[in-house]
Each structure stands twice: as C-alpha cells, then as structure tokens.
Structure prediction request, 576 residues.
Amino acid sequence: MRIVTRLLPLLLLAACTATTVAKGPATAPAASTSAAVSAADPRAAEAGRQILAKGGSAVDAAAAVMLALTVVEPQSSGIGGGSFIVYHDAKTGLSTYDGREEAPASASPTWFLDAAGQPPASFNAARAGGRSVGVPGNLANIAAAHKVHGKLPWAALFEPAIRLARDGFAVTPRFLGVLESYNSFLAESPAARALYYQADGSPKPLGTIITNPELARFLETVAANGPDHLYRGAGGERLVAAVRSSPRSQSTMTAADLAAYEARPRAPVCGTYRVYKICGMAPPSSGGPGVYAILKQLERFDLPSKKPDDATTWHLIAESMRLAYADRAKWIADPDHTPVPTAGLMSDAYLVERSALIAADKRMAKAEAGTPPGAMAIAAAPDTEVAGTSSFSVADAAGNVVAMTSTIEAPFGSGVLVDGYVLNNELTDFNLVPDVDGVPTANRVEGGKRPRSSMAPMIAYDAAGKPVLSIGAAGGTTILAQVAKAMIGVLDWKMSVQEAIAMPQLVAIGDLVRIEKGTRLEALVPALEAMGHKVQATALPLKANGVEWTAQGWRGGADPRSEGESLAFGQAVLNP
Prediction:
C-alpha cells in the first residue's frame, strides 16, 4: 500500500505533524497526511495519535483508543464490554477478531424468565444488575490482535488511559446530559455515585475534573501483568463477586467462565459492490452480512446518478434496509452454537433474488426474512438491542488500517461497576423470550454463547485492492443503517467521509421508516408516504466515525451529532 510519509528529525523516535482536525463541516487536509484517527471523544482520538507518534501500529492505536474510552466515555464502551476488530495488515492482508461477550456456562434459554415463565416487565428490569453481564471480551481481543499486529510493548498501550484516569478528565456537555438522563438508573450504584455525582445527588457540573484512581490502579496492573489479571487473577475474582452479589439481580458467573474466555479470530465476510470490495465482521455480528446486503441489493439501481435529496433514492435505501433487517432478526446468531447460513446470506444469487423484491416506485407490503442457501428451520424474534457503543477507525503510515467497535450495550451497561469501570449488559442482546410458537430462535440464551450484535466495523477496498475507507457506528440497531448510508455517501456520491457521516439518516426496520427529525429528509415525508411508507420523524441515536484515503493521504470524519473528533497527520515510521 502506497502511503505518503513525512520525514521527521532523527532525534525523535516518532512524531506527528501536519495535524488536521475534522469536526463538523468537512475540511480538506492542509498537507499530506499519512495517518489518521477518528473516535467518539477527542481525548480518545488523542490517545490513538500519541501511540502512533511513538511508532505504534494501527492496532496499537485502536487498543489505546478503546482503553481511553473506558475512562472518558464510560457510558458507552470499555474494558467491561466487548468488541469486534476488522484489521487490514499491509503485509498479510485482512483479519478479524471476535471479542464479543459470552454467557456464563450455567446460562440457559430461560435465563431471563421468571418462575412462571414470563419475561421481565421492562428492558431496564432485565439489564439492571449482575444477571445481564456477559464475560467481557475487550482485553482479550486487543491482546489477541496486538500479539499478531502490534509494534509497541503491551504496557505502552495503557499509558494514555492511565494518565486520564489518574490525572482526571473534564465533564463535557454530552457526558453531563447522559449523567442527568441516567441518574435514577445509577441510584443504587455507590461506585457510580461516588465517581460521577455530587452529595446532593446531582451530576458533577460541566467542566468538573473527574479522577478515577481505582481504574488507574487496575489499568496499571493489567499493563504490567497482562489480561490474565482479569481472566485468571484477582481482577476477575472481584468481577465475579460483583455480579454474584449485585443487589438488583444476581448472576451465576464463575471464575471458570472468565478463565475459559478467548478472543476468536474469524474469517471476514467480503463481497463486491460495484468496483469495490466490502469487508466486515462475520456472525455473531450482523454488521458484516447486514451492511453488505443493504448495499448489494441496491447495486442494480443507479444510485451514483441519483441525488441524495431525492425521495426515490431514499425509498430504495429504505426497502433494502427492511429486507436486510428481516434476515438479521431471523438468521444471525453465534455460529459456534447455532447454524448460521452466512455464506448463503452473502451470496450474489441470494441477494439478487432479494433485490428483485424492491420496486422503484412503491413499498413492498411486508418485508420478511428470506430463505438463504444453508438455512435451517428457525423462528424470527423481535429485537431488544438498544443504543450505546463506540466505534473508531485508525490508519497508520505503514499501510495498516483498523475498524473497531466496542460496547457495553445500553448506556452504563448493567449499572454494576468494579475496579472503576462499568460492566456490560450484553446478555440482554439475546432474545429474552427463547422460542416463538414453540420454535426455538437462533439468538436464544445458551451457556457459553455470544449474543447477536449490530456492531458493524467495515473496510472498503478499491478496484486495485487498496483500502480506501474504514467506517463504523454506534446506536444499537441503527448501526447497520448508519454504516450503509455513510458507505453509499462515500462510494456512490463521492462525498468526504465527514460529509457522508453528517448526512441525514433514515432507518427502516419492519413496517416503519424513521427519519432524522429536524433534517432536510423531513421534506421527503409526503413523497415517501405516497409510495406507501409509514414514516416517523424522530430523534435517532447516531454516532459514526471513519477514515478515508484521498489524494492528500488519510483524512477522517467524526459525527457532528456527537463530541467525536478525527485527527489526520504525518507519521514517521521507523523499521516498518
């Protein structure tokens, strides 16, 4: 991969220059930029930049971003959760890593049902406390990727996050809003109250510097001793104790569950879309197959010649989304426990067949799951995944590119904190009701199983095989729609990644088309309704980040709806 590299003084081991910050409206790089980082928080993006400045690889920088987000964006992701990594190595090609959380071995399909066989009264009732916590996969995942693709020592990846936890970070407007919204949810968490709230119960004010010495100590220990401190050591013992003694609901997770956990390299899913090769994460992620299906089903339509504000364009996108989400709900699950027809879902013949259901001028009456090659009898079930998560992308000067998405599921996860970090509620991403009319669902709870996820880190390649786009998003089930829209913007409409991310959003699942309230898409409602759509203008949980290759080098895009930031700069590479 050809990369523009700026020569820097030899007295520096590595340094970053020609920095361009992308936030809000798109700006072209002021100089050649050989590296870029995009993350949902400026302090996390800076953590990635610091690692690249020391000569780290893209996977080193992505690990540092995830660790920093544990500190500054605790409501969304971090070491208490899991992740998917899609990594292009300039020398060895594409690989993907599954660090999705895992159910305890003792879990069963009735995990969330009461003695009468009834599901929880509400989603919050299901997710609050220890029972919703899956074995966290993030530390194992970055360790697995770092072992193969890392350049810096393991401990170096932790330095930015340790500084943030020890020295403190300021409360931002977005974080303050989250603390206000989830005050009652965290009311029974003494650890969260001590960290983020004042004595009178109100959130710490805007600009307050929050320190997390407990988390700093934990990170220092993992940096020194490796991930076994969590999976086989004292850190894991404290985690198990926390979820088993949670006052709101208890888990039966054991130390053996932690010790058995491993990040799993998986074969990526790839397909062609026009002149591009599109690659993503295989199940239990629905992101790779789902985003690809949305794109491939639209391939027969001439989107590049259509206008982004045309009602017919968005009608076509909505119809393709409806088909992809229907297949997602029925077929996607953990392939190590349930047969998943991944190859069938990705096959050209199947997606051409699905595309034929889309009419250019009217809505299909009902978007149902198809029957891809290799499918077995299984039931579809309603989705319970909610908005949360954080996605980030990195490209380095050696030609390595990473798309990584990390999550603890809902904001503040289970509400349980241990060692200063928040534990996930990922087990609520399983189908809470395991069967439909007596037929098992693919995504039912089972011991050792990983729940289906919407996380969709993706990399696109041009016709010459060069990676040109790394993209991902946060926001629960809206993730597939966000990533597909951004890819259409960049690949079909030749927008910058910043413009494509900022473009108004449409999400179509089932019989409802949701469009982003307060955007120019609202003007299209009458035309969409005339084609048969039921349309709702509403606030949507949107937060995407990405980097793209341009004639000036790498540049990034960060969602203006969030506090995200992208940094593009020149990176010296020593001994690449």
The CA atoms of residues 59 and 150 lie 6 Å apart.
